[in-house]
Each structure stands twice: as C-alpha cells, then as structure tokens.
C-alpha cells in the first residue's frame, strides 16, 4: 500500500467523521435542550405555580404545621432548586461522556 | 452622625465584638498577602484554578451581601408570605445561571461579561454598552453594602461611621489590589464560613429556645411557631402573618420574583466568578455548590423572620415604657436612631398596634436591625453577639470585594485595553486594573458616607437593569446562532432605556426630588417588577431586528457551536504569551482531547501548540 493511498483514505475518513460529528453534535445539543426544558418545568411548578399562582387553593392544604403553598413559597422551592442544579450537572456529565465531548 | 457607643453599657459584648471583628479582618488581610499575583490570568480569573466547591462558597459570600445577612429576615418578617419574592427570587436565578449560562461562558473563557458580548456580537459598541451596564449595576449595588458596614461598625465597635467605612474599604481595596481575583476568591470563601457560622449559631440557639428543635430549617414545618405568631399578630391587629398577597398583588409577586431571578443570572459580579473554575463541567457543579451554600442560610431566613418578630412583640408589647427603655439593647439601638419607643397615648405602657413600622404603633423598628438585635432580644451570650457582628461585616466586605473587581475589569480590561489600547502590555494592564480598584473604592467610600436617599430603590433597579440589559444578549448569544450584532445591540439599548425611564418615572419623588412620582405602576407592576417588561422587550426587539438583518459571520456561528461543547474548556489560554486574545481563541478543537485530564494548576502549557 503506497503512501499516497493511505493519505487519501485518511482524508476520506476524516470527511465522513466530520459529517457524523456534526450530526452527533446536533443530537447532543438537542438532548441538552430537552433536559433543560424538563428541569425548567419542575422549576416553574415548585416556585411560580405552587407558591404564587396556586397560593390560595394550596393554602388550605397543610404541610406539617404550615400551609403547603406557604412552605413552597418560603422553603420548598429553594430545596428543589438546589436538587435541580445537581441533577443537571450529573445528567450532563453522562451526556458529555456518551458523545465524547467531555472536558 | 452616629454616636460612639461607650463600653460601659456591657463590656462583655463589645470586647467580644472587637476581638472577633479585628481577628477576622487580620485573617482576610493575611490571605491577600499570601496571594500576591503578577499576571492578568491570576488577577482577573484566579488562574482558572479554583475548585468547584471553593468557587461555590465564594459565589455564596459574594452573593449574600449585607442585604441578605442583615436586612433580609427583617424584610421577610415585615412582608410575611409575600417575602417569597426575595426568598425565591434570590435563589431561583441560580437554576437559570447553571442551566443556561455558566458552563457556556466558562467554555468561552476570557475574563469578563463584556468580553463575551463584544466577541459574540463582533462589535465594540456592544462591548462598551455591556461594560457601562456592568459599571452601573455594580456601583448601585456597592452603595447598599456600605450602609451595612456602617451599621455594623458603628453599633458594635462604637467607631465613628466615617472612619469605619474608610477603614473597611481600605482593607477591601488592598485585598483586591494585591491579589486580584485570586485573593478575593479565597477571602470570600473564608468570609462565607464566618457569615454562615454566625447565622447558624444565632438561629439554632433561638430555635432551640422557642421550639425545642435545634434545626431551624425544619422548625418551620414541625413546630407551631408560625401559628403562634399569626395569633399574636391578630391580638394587636397586625394582620395574619402567613396569608398571601397582603403587601403585593399576585401579579406583582410573580413579576418581582421573576425579575430578581433573571436579574441574578445577569449580574456581572456573580457571572464572572464562573470563569475561575478549571472547566465547563466544574462550572455546572460550582453553581450547584453555590446555591447549596446559599440555601443553608436562605432556608433559615423565613424561620428567623418569625422568631425575631415573635420575640420582639412578646418582649415589648404591653411592657411599661420606663421598663422597656432600661433594657440595654433598647438603649443601644435607640442611640443609633434605628429603634424608637414613644408613649403616644401617655398610659405608660407600650402598645404595638398594627405592627413594627406602622404609625399607630408606639414602637418603630428599622427592618435592618431585626437580625442584628435578635441575639440580644433572645438574651444570648455576649460572644454570640460578637459572632453576628463579624458575620455581618464578612457579608458586606465579601460582596464589596466582588463588586470592586467587577468594576475594575469593566474599566481596565473591557474599556481601556479592549477598546482604546489593544497594544497595552500585561504590566500596563495590571497597573490600570489596580488603580481602577482604588478609584472604585474611593467612589464607594463617598457613596457610603453620603448615601443617596434612594439606596433601596437603586438596588432594586440594579436587578431590573441586569434583567433588561445583560441577560438577554448573553442567553441569545448561546442559544440562538442566528442572533447578530444588530439584534443584540438594539435589544440591549431598548431594554435598558425602557427600564431606566420607567423606574425614574415611578420613583421621581425620590430620584428627581419631585413631590409625586409621574407614574404609580405600569401595566400593574411597580418599580421592583418592571424590569421583566424591559427584559421581554429586549428579547422581542433583538429577535425581530436580527431576522431582518444579515446573519452573523461564519466564524461567529462556529464560535457558538464551540461554546456549546465542554470539550477543550480546560485548555483555554488567555493572558501572558497570547497577547492577541482579541476574541476567538476558544478555537481549541478536538485535537487537544488527549490533554484534558491533566491538571492545569499553573500556567497552561498549551501556548506552544
């Protein structure tokens, strides 16, 4: 096998690699955005929904010694926020490895 | 001028305060001496070597200002349920930051927020506007910090308030000048420890005292304290504590919380801290640590708010005026003018009718002193009071430090170096950066000594402006490849102008000195929440304009693709050796993958590649 052929083959390989690479990276970004969307749905539900929009209906439901909406508004939402960020960091590390784009 | 509080009122208290305050200041100063830095990488981004957890603690200290430590529980105890605007608003933004901004900005590298905006939108106009927004937001913020420093020093050390502010700022500026971001990061991490210990000790002790549960975070749910306060308030016609929307309408609560969250994710002094971690994945993790550390305090705030109010009402309401006036902490706080007891109806007994700040009440208490006075009201040991003083000071100083470096980088890096003197050497840039820190400290000292009459308004304005100006172009710069210079700049200008004009109109009575504001509300929102309209306007204008103007150049679209991948973020090189860091040196491609696991503890070796 001559040097020229090897060079040509490598070039084709690289070209194919680049196209699949681009498609894969698009898929990586799509899945990242989907994960972000899901986590923000939870974010909205525990803060704006449970603590503000549903403040009055959930006020009659008690959680321990306080109304459920009061708890979400003053403590519950904050706890969920912390969990959401760690879940994102953990899921993204897995996604990065799956697509070989980890740092 | 606040009178000096003489020692005879309680030697124990002041001696402990003095020892703890001076002791912690010496530690901060020691760290600064150890961290002397000599290049711009260390100066602006701590050499990108800060572990995720340490950066998390530094972000938390940077974030939790004198306002969080000193005023927040007081404000929440005044607002009741509606205090959620601050509790949620000042935490929920970290989710936005972690998921939408921090990892991508870290991958991009460089030093500042205007760096990203200027490079991504290939425009020095965008860079300049972003730098001005950074300056304005940080300056309004620092004025509020100085008030916190003043209260702590005058009340606990009995020093003259002017002298106190000058001494504190001299120390803060010295830390920044000597060690730049590196020293600031490590002192902030220590300051987080000091402030959280102080808050935990006080709140746990009171929690144990009032509810029998030493974990205040849980006492809210497990004890009946909220119910007891609601009952106590009902007795003095103060309204039910835990009922929603007493102070603000539902729409306002929603909009203010959202504005504060989005504003958080657009605050330059917070975002730029994420440049200091070694990689994009560490930036994600670091945001988690930051919010975890913040949450430890924020979960205690609603409980402390209830405890403090309960104790104050129980101690003062129905007490003889002469007896109340002889209580040591009442005497001390009366001297600062932040607490007033009157006997309006002349019956010799205090009636706290309608609350702590209402005109019908015979007691007036500034919300700012609720946390600081709590240990004394609860009768805790003198050393605890000293710990609180040191904690309050740590909270104020750490935030002031973060703001000084943010302002310094906007002037010395973005405006001086990037716009006016791209040929400046490392040495020259460092000199300018240090001089700007000193100048910023002088301005902050002036604002601290002559506080504008509208500090609270301008701090609220800072969040509205950050939400309406910096947040949209950063977010669109990452998530919308098609976003171009024309769209981003016009969106930024429209959002900024709109918010600024509306807030000035709504606060014309304080800002312009008129008798009445021009405008009470705009579409149902007051000055605190109107930033959300500015932000929406920014997004809409940016989107529409960008779709009718040419797409950004090829290399910018490649930059966006590159920023989205964590790969190669450990290899970002700026600073010495790569003077031409005029922007897109994030172009580290897949070829560097082999190197990713090596620790970039010192100057990265990638330069010769």
Summarize the structure in words.
Chain A: Keywords: Membrane, Transmembrane, Transmembrane helix. The complex is a heterodimer of chains A (103) and B (609). Helix content of chain A is 80%, strand content 4%. Chain A is mainly alpha-helical. Chain A has a two-stranded antiparallel sheet. Chain A is elongated, with a radius of gyration of 24 Å. The N terminus of chain A is likely disordered. Chain B has 609 residues and is mostly helical. Chain B has a domain of 355 residues: Sodium/glucose cotransporter (Up-down Bundle). Chain B contains 25 helices and two strands. In chain B, helix 7 packs antiparallel against helix 18. Chain B is globular, with a radius of gyration of 25 Å. Chains A and B meet through helix 1, strand 2 and helix 2 of A and helix 5, helix 9, helix 10, helix 11 and helix 13 of B.
Q: How many whole angstroms does the radius of gyration of chain A measure?
A: 24 Å
Largest sheet of chain A: 2 strands, antiparallel
Order of helices and strands of chain B: HHHHHHHHHHHHHHHHEEHHHHHHHHH
Tally of individual helices of chain A = 2
Class per helix and strand makeup of chain A? mainly alpha
How would you state the average pLDDT of chain A, rounded? Answer: 88
Q: What is the oligomeric state here?
A: heterodimer
Characteristic terms for this protein:
heterodimer, A: 103 residues, mainly alpha, two-stranded antiparallel ribbon, 2 helices, 2 strands, disordered N terminus, B: 609 residues, Sodium/glucose cotransporter, two-stranded antiparallel sheet, 25 helices, 67% helix, 1% strand, Na_symporter_ssu (chain A), transmembrane helix (chain A), Sodium symporter small subunit domain-containing protein (chain A), transmembrane (chain A), membrane (chain A)
In brief, what are we looking at here?
The complex is a heterodimer of chains A (103) and B (609). Chain A is mainly alpha-helical and 103 residues long.
């Amino acid at each position: 096998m001559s040097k020229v052929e090897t060079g040509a083959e490598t070039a084709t390989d690289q070209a194919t690699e680049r196209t699949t690479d681009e498609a894969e990276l698009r898929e990586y970004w799509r899945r990242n955005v989907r994960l972000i969307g899901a986590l923000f749905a939870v974010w909205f539900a525990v803060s704006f929904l449970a603590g503000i929009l549903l403040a009055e209906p959930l006020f009659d439901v008690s959680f321990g010694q306080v109304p459920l909406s009061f708890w979400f508004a003053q403590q519950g939402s904050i706890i969920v926020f912390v969990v959401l960020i760690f879940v994102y960091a953990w899921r993204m590390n897995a996604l990065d490895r799956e697509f070989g784009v980890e740092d | 001028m606040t009178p000096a509080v003489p020692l005879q009122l309680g030697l124990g208290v002041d001696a402990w305060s003095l020892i703890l305050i001076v002791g912690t200041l010496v530690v901060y100063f020691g760290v600064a001496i150890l961290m002397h830095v000599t290049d711009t990488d260390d100066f602006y981004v701590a050499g990108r070597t800060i572990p995720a957890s340490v950066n998390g603690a530094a972000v938390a200290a940077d974030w939790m200002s004198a306002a969080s430590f000193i005023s927040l529980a007081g404000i929440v105890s005044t607002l009741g349920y509606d205090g959620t605007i601050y509790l949620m608003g000042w935490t929920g933004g970290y989710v936005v930051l972690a998921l939408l901004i921090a990892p991508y900005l870290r991958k991009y590298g460089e030093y500042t927020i205007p760096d990203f905006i200027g490079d991504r939108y290939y425009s020095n106009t965008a860079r300049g506007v972003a730098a001005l927004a950074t300056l304005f937001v940080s300056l309004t913020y620092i004025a509020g910090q100085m008030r916190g420093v003043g209260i702590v020093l005058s009340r606990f050390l009995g020093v003259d308030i002017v002298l106190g502010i000058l001494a504190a700022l001299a120390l803060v500026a010295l830390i920044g000048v000597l060690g730049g971001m590196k020293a600031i990061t490590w002192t902030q991490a220590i300051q987080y420890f000091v402030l959280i210990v102080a808050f935990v000790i006080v709140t746990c002790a009171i929690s144990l005292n009032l509810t029998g549960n030493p974990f205040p975070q849980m006492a809210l749910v497990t004890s009946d304290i909220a119910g007891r306060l609601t009952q106590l308030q009902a007795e003095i016609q103060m309204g039910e504590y835990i009922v929603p929307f007493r102070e603000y309408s539902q729409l306002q609560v929603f909009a203010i919380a959202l504005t504060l969250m989005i504003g958080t994710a657009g605050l330059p002094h917070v975002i730029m801290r994420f440049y200091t971690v070694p990689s994009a994945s560490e930036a994600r993790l670091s945001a988690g640590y930051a919010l975890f550390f913040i949450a430890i305090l924020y979960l205690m705030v609603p409980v402390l708010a209830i405890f403090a109010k309960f104790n104050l009402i129980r101690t003062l309401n129905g007490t003889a005026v002469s007896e109340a006036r002889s209580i040591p902490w009442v005497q001390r706080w009366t001297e600062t003018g932040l607490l007033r007891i009157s006997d309006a109806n002349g019956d010799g007994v205090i009636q706290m009718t309608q609350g702590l700040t209402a005109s019908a009440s015979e007691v007036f208490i500034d919300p700012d002193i609720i946390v600081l006075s709590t240990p004394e009201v609860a009768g805790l040991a003198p050393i605890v009071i000293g710990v609180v003083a040191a904690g309050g000071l740590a909270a104020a100083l750490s935030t002031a430090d973060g703001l000084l470096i943010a302002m310094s980088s906007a002037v010395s890096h973005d405006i001086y170096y990037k716009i006016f003197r791209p040929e400046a050497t490392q040495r020259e840039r460092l000199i300018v950066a240090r001089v700007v820190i000193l100048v910023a400290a002088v301005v902050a000292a002036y604002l601290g000594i002559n506080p504008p009459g509208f500090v609270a308004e301008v701090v609220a304005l800072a969040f509205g402006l950050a939400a309406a100006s910096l947040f949209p172009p950063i977010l669109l710069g990452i998530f919308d490849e098609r976003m171009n210079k024309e769209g981003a700049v016009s969106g930024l200008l429209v959002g900024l102008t709109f918010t600024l004009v509306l807030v000035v109109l709504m606060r014309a009575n304080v800002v312009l000195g008129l008798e009445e504001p021009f405008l009470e509300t705009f579409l149902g929102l007051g000055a605190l929440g109107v930033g959300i309209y500015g932000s929406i306007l920014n997004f809409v204008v940016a989107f529409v304009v960008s779709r009718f103007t040419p797409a950004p150049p090829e290399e910018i679209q490649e930059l966006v693709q590159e920023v989205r991948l964590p790969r190669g973020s450990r290899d970002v090189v700026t600073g010495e050796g790569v003077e031409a860091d005029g922007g897109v040196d994030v172009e580290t491609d897949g070829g560097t993958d082999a190197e990713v696991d090596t620790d970039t503890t010192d100057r990265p070796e990638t330069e010769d590649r």
